[in-house]
C-alpha cells in the first residue's frame, strides 16, 4: 500500500478462541441467493460495476467482489464465478439480492448482458471438513462436476470449506446453518446483508486484504473514493474478530469504554458459537479504540468483546497503537 511507512501489523490481545467441537458436514445455505449474468458482455459489464477484475476471470477461478455506491459504500458483496463461456454467477446474501439485482439492471443499458435471479434453480450449499471435495483446489479455485459447481472458500478455524452450487446435491445436510455461519465469521471475510448496506467502504471490511478489490482495473462506482482511501493512508477503521458472551447480530453498534457517548464500531457479521457460549463477531471498529479500554456490544454497559486472532494480518497506523 502507498504511504505505509508508519504502519505495522496489529495483534490481538487474546490470540485464540476457546475450543469448539469439530465441524463437518453440509448445509443448505437458505440465507444466500444467486444472480445470473449471461450474454457476450456479462464479464465486461460486471468488470465495470464491481470492485474486482472480471475481464480476466477464468473458468477455474472464483472472485470475492463488492458493489459500491458512488460514495464507495458497499451495497452488496459477492462470491462470483464463471458457469459457462458467457455466464457468471454472483452468490450474495438473500436480503440484498432483490435491490442489488434491480440496481445493477439499471446500468446494463445496451450491453449484451441479461441479469436474473437464479436462486430457485441453483441452490447453494456449504460443505465443511470434506478434504476430498476440495482436493487440488486453492482458495477461490473452482471446479465443475457435471451440473455441480464447487468453489473452495478460505479455510476457517482449521476447517476446509466449499461453496457448492447444484440443482441435484446428493450429500446429507447434517450441519447446522448456524455452525456454517460461525465458520464464515472465523474466515474473516464479512458478508453484506440488509442491516449493513451502505455502512462500509471495502477497506473497512479488509476486502483488499482478502482479495476482494483490484486496484489495477478500470473505473467502477465508488472507485475513486476506494482508491483514495488506499493510497492516501486514510483508513482509520478496520474489521477484527471478537467473541462475546451474549447474542449478537449484524448491524449492532459497539461502544468503547473511554468514549461511551458515540458508537466506536458496527458488527458486520455475527454467528452463535457452536459450543453455545455466546457469539463470534466481525466488528468494523475505530483503530484508536484498540489501544486501551474495552469494547462493548449494544451499549456502553453491554457485554465485553474479547479480541481473537484473524487468519490474516491487518495493517494499522502506528500512531493509533501503543508504543
List keywords for this structure.
323 residues; five-stranded antiparallel sheet; mainly beta; Gyrase A, domain 2; six-stranded antiparallel sheet; globular
Number of strands: 18
Tell me, what is the CATH class of the domain at 25-187? Alpha Beta
Question: What pattern of helices and strands is seen along the backbone?
Answer: EEEHEEEHEEEEEHHEEEEEEE
Contiguous runs where pLDDT drops below 50 for at least 5 residues: 1-11, 317-323
Based on Cα principal axes, name the global outline: globular
Main sheet overview: 6 strands, antiparallel
What would you give as the CATH superfamily of the domain at 25-187?
Probable tRNA modification gtpase trme, domain 1
Q: How far apart are the first and last residues' alpha carbons, in Å? A: 22 Å
CATH topology of the domain at 25-187: Gyrase A, domain 2
Structural class of the secondary structure composition? Answer: mainly beta
Task: Specify the helix fraction band.
Answer: 10-25%
| Strand arrangement in the largest pleated sheet | 16-13-14-15-12-17
Residues in β-strands, percent: 25-35%
Distinct helical segment count: 4
Oligomerization state: single chain
Which CATH architecture of the domain at 25-187? Answer: 2-Layer Sandwich
Q: What value does the Rg take, in angstroms?
A: 19 Å
The average pLDDT value, as a whole number, equals 91
Amino acid at each position: 500500500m502507498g504511504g505505509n511507512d508508519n504502519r505495522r501489523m496489529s495483534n490481538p490481545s487474546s490470540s485464540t478462541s476457546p475450543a469448539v467441537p469439530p465441524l463437518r458436514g453440509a448445509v443448505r445455505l437458505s440465507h444466500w441467493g444467486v444472480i445470473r449474468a449471461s450474454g457476450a458482455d456479462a464479464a465486461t459489464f460486471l468488470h465495470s460495476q464491481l470492485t474486482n477484475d472480471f475481464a480476466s476471470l477464468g473458468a477455474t477461478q472464483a472472485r470475492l467482489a463488492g458493489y459500491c455506491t458512488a460514495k464507495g459504500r458497499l451495497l452488496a458483496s459477492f462470491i462470483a464465478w464463471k458457469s459457462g463461456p458467457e455466464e457468471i454467477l454472483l452468490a450474495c446474501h438473500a436480503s440484498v439480492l432483490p435491490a442489488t439485482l434491480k440496481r445493477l439492471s439499471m446500468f446494463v443499458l445496451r450491453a449484451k448482458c441479461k441479469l436474473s435471479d437464479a436462486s430457485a434453480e441453483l441452490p447453494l450449499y456449504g460443505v465443511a471438513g470434506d478434504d476430498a471435495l476440495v482436493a487440488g483446489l486453492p482458495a477461490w479455485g473452482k471446479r465443475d462436476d457435471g451440473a455441480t459447481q464447487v468453489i473452495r472458500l478460505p479455510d476457517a478455524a482449521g476447517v476446509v470449506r466449499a461453496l457448492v452450487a447444484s440443482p441435484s446435491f446428493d450429500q446429507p445436510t447434517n450441519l447446522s446453518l448456524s455452525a456454517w455461519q460461525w465458520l464464515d465469521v472465523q474466515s474473516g471475510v464479512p458478508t453484506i446483508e440488509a442491516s449493513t448496506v451502505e455502512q462500509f467502504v471495502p477497506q473497512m471490511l479488509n476486502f483488499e486484504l482478502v482479495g476482494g478489490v483490484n486496484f489495477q482495473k478500470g473505473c467502477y462506482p465508488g472507485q475513486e473514493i476506494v482508491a483514495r482511501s488506499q493510497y492516501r493512508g486514510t483508513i482509520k477503521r478496520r474489521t477484527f474478530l471478537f467473541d462475546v458472551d451474549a447474542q449478537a447480530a449484524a448491524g449492532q453498534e459497539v461502544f468503547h469504554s473511554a468514549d461511551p457517548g458515540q458508537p466506536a464500531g458496527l458488527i458486520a457479521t455475527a454467528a452463535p458459537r457452536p459450543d453455545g457460549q455466546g457469539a463470534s463477531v466481525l466488528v468494523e471498529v475505530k483503530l484508536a479504540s484498540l489501544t486501551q479500554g474495552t469494547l462493548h456490544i449494544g451499549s456502553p454497559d453491554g457485554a465485553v468483546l474479547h479480541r481473537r486472532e484473524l487468519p490474516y494480518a491487518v495493517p494499522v497506523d502506528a500512531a493509533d497503537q501503543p508504543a
